[in-house]
Design goal:
The protein is built from 2 helices and 9 strands, in the order ααβββββββββ. By secondary structure, the chain is α+β, with helices and mostly antiparallel strands. Strands 3, 4, 5, 6, 8 and 9 form a 6-stranded mixed β-sheet that branches. The chain has a 3-stranded antiparallel β-sheet with strand order 1-2-7, with no helix packed on it. It is rod-shaped. The relative contact order is 0.18. About 5% of the residues have low confidence.
Length: about 170
């Protein structure tokens, strides 16, 4: 006795299967669209960035004669990163050949021509802040000549600025 009910059942199962396949395809397409447009990964970019690299620039510098016959070197350092920057060494370089004419370091002693002069450690705590680095050079500098000021942080990161001695 076959009254045709099994035929109807197979027809309903085929329709349900087709609907399920369409729903799965649409859901997969929506998820792919959201992933490619960055909606799902956008929350990861909102997490705080962990960057511990010191970044800084020298925004200006001057070399001027002092009353003792030596030259006072002043440089302005701006923190452009997201961690504090501590300047521990400064050099005056001949821009033509890169030779160090004068050096100053934290804890250094000397006259600035053969051994490093003392430099007070300068820390620029946050991005956008500017600090001043100042030291004295005993010899090797002439008025009217260009020199490169090189600042070095406690992590070895350096930045340079070229200026003319007054």
């Amino acid at each position: 006795m076959n009254n045709g009910k099994s035929m109807n059942r197979h027809g309903i199962e085929a329709i349900v299967g087709a609907v399920l396949l369409i729903v799965i395809t649409v859901v997969a397409a929506v998820l792919l669209y959201l992933w490619f447009t960055g909606y799902l990964t956008g929350t990861a970019s909102k997490a705080p960035q962990i960057n511990t690299v010191q970044q800084f620039i020298v925004t200006g510098a001057s070399i001027s004669p002092s009353t003792t016959g030596a030259y006072t070197v002043t440089a302005y350092v701006e923190n452009t990163g997201n961690v504090p920057v501590t300047i521990v060494q400064a050099n005056v370089l001949n821009p033509q050949n890169g030779q160090v004419l004068c050096s100053a370091a934290v804890g250094g002693t000397g006259n600035g021509s053969t051994s490093p002069t003392s430099l007070t450690s300068t820390t620029v705590s946050s991005s956008g802040n500017v600090g001043t680095v100042s030291f004295t050079c005993g010899s090797g500098i002439s008025s009217g000549q260009s020199y490169t000021i090189q600042l070095i942080s406690n992590n070895g990161v350096s930045a340079e600025y070229t200026t003319t001695a007054s």
